[in-house]
Design a protein that fits this description.
Helices cover about 30% and strands about 25% of the residues. By secondary structure, the protein is an alpha/beta fold. It folds into two domains: about 250 residues, 3-Layer(aba) Sandwich (Rossmann fold), CATH 3.40.50.300; about 90 residues, Hypothetical Protein Yjia, Chain: A,domain 2 (2-Layer Sandwich). The chain has a seven-stranded parallel beta sheet with strand order 3-2-4-1-5-6-7, sandwiched between helices. Strands 8-12-9-10-11 form a five-stranded antiparallel beta sheet, with helices on one face. It is globular, with a radius of gyration of 20 Å. About 10% of the residues have low confidence.
């Protein structure tokens, strides 16, 4: 059976920092070949030029496709589907596809397009990431420069110019599998935590809310969510069903940001064999819930089984499958835990070894 290529949809208002987040992702891709589809509204492909300059073999010009005919959710059949088919027909297929929507494009119609014939059997939506400007949203503005958002919305006659930004924001939150609260360097720790708690309460169960400064998030956190969002559209209801769009963003402070990973940490937990794979998966889910762990992945040795059990968890959702024999490798359970800085490593280790 052919494995589907995972695709990640990155959405969010003008100025939230989507481009900065994607550039950081490309610069830290660790050899993963990422193809990028940018929905740049208007004639000037600013984001495309920025991303083409990321200076890494993982984002050559061949891997960056720009759609500049306005809102991607209005031009799915004309622009997006042919672009995807061309990408999937390439001999050197990407390991992952990242789609950056323009500022006010709705994610729902785009996710729906992954059910089209010719697409559905070859690619799946790994996850929808909604990037927000933490400072602006905390202050009730949704975007750093609301006047600029409205000015750009007025440029496209296909768009609904009357819908309040609050409703568009609700659509982006409703569709998200991960919400990135960006620009937390402009918030106090208390403000950032209050906003994170509020967004968790407003989003679907299991949606992860993570804090970031200048879009600096580990690739392991952003990619590999394995959601299959196109099969879960009913849960991602749109607040309204109009078309709208806006331009993309560049993040208002766009300087180097290699320091960002100190807000995250990862560590390894090892233990002996487990006797009951299903019970251990439940145990892992409980530990994740209790400790706000973002990702957990690794291999489990199950008593009496010659094959190792691969385990991947995104939030409290745990997937397992037997992948291959241990062979000469030691029969031990080895798990990598990833989360925001401040995890109680001792307590997590003890709970996983119990």
């Amino acid at each position: 059976m052919t494995t589907k290529i995972p695709a990640t949809v990155v959405t969010g208002f003008l100025g939230a920092g989507k481009t900065t987040l994607i550039r950081h992702m490309l610069q830290n891709a660790k050899g993963m070949r990422i193809a990028l589809i940018i929905n740049e509204f208007g004639d000037l492909g600013v984001d495309g030029d920025l991303l083409k300059g990321c200076g890494d073999e993982v984002c050559s010009e061949d891997d960056i496709v720009e759609l500049s005919n306005g809102c991607i959710c209005c031009t799915v059949a004309d622009d997006f589907i042919p672009t995807m088919k061309a990408l999937l027909a390439r001999e050197n297929k990407p390991d992952h596809i990242v789609i950056e929507t323009s500022g006010l494009a709705l994610p729902q119609p785009l996710v729906r397009a992954f059910n089209w014939p010719g697409i559905s059997t070859k690619v799946t939506v790994d996850g929808v990431i909604t990037v927000i400007d933490g400072r602006a949203v905390h202050d009730g503005q949704f975007a750093h420069n609301v006047a600029a958002v409205d000015a750009q919305r007025a440029q496209d006659e296909n768009l609904d110019h009357e819908t309040p930004l609050s409703e568009l924001f609700e659509d982006q939150i409703a569709c998200a599998d991960m919400i990135v609260v960006n620009k937390t360097d402009l918030l106090s720790p208390e403000e950032a935590e209050t906003l994170t708690v509020r967004l968790k309460s407003q989003s679907r169960d299991g949606v992860q809310v993570v804090k970031a400064s200048m879009g600096a998030l580990p690739v392991d956190v952003l990619l590999g969510q394995g959601i299959g969002a196109e099969a879960d559209l009913a849960a991602r209801h749109e607040v309204h069903h109009h078309h709208h769009d806006d331009d993309d963003d560049d993040g208002h402070h766009d300087h180097a940001h290699e320091h960002g990973h100190d807000e995250f940490e990862s560590f390894i937990v090892t233990r002996e064999e487990v006797t009951d794979a299903a019970a251990f998966a439940t145990q892992v889910a409980d530990v994740i819930r209790a400790n706000n762990i973002l990702r957990l992945k690794g291999f489990v040795a199950v008593t009496g089984k010659p094959m190792r059990l691969a385990l991947q968890a995104v939030g409290p959702r745990v997937d397992t499958y037997f992948d291959r024999p241990f062979g000469a490798a030691p029969r031990e359970t080895r798990l990598v835990v990833i989360g925001e800085a401040g995890l109680d490593q001792a307590a997590i280790t003890m709970a996983l070894q119990a």
